[in-house]
Amino acid sequence: MSWQAYVDTNLVGSGKIKSAAILGRQGGVWATSSGFNLTPEEQATLLAAHDNTAQTQASGIRLAGVKYLTISVDERSINGKKGVDGCVIVRTKQAILIGTYTTPSQQSEAAVVVEGLADYLIGVGY
């Protein structure tokens, strides 16, 4: 399966994720949903976000020009909120998965989708 298919089918295709992207941990966008454009600055911040959890908690995360307050962050996952909408970001061995959601989807539903794909990718070496 292509990286774009993971975004289109597994993430956005779930109906719980509005927009999504997969970044390589060495840099570069592997796949993204239509119109979800991460700037080079946003990509650089995402690559460092899990390693500097205090900074990520204090500063929040910006995705495609939208700023999310950081609700929780650890070495694997970041959860952000903007009003009733939010984002889930999960780091695997080689990639960073990003999913945003809007009402009526909830954080718990979005997290199951993004975390589930992350678990699968980790299991196959990514």
From TrEMBL:
One of its GO terms (cellular component) is cytoskeleton. One of its GO terms (molecular function) is actin monomer binding. Keywords: Actin-binding, Cytoplasm, Cytoskeleton. SUPFAM superfamilies: Profilin (actin-binding protein) (SSF55770). It comes from the Eukaryota. It is found in: Cytoplasm, Cytoskeleton. It holds the Pfam family Profilin. InterPro entries: PFN, PFN_euk, PFN_sf, Profilin_CS. Occurs in many kinds of cells as a complex with monomeric actin in a 1:1 ratio. Belongs to the profilin family. Binds to actin and affects the structure of the cytoskeleton. At high concentrations, profilin prevents the polymerization of actin, whereas it enhances it at low concentrations. This is Profilin.
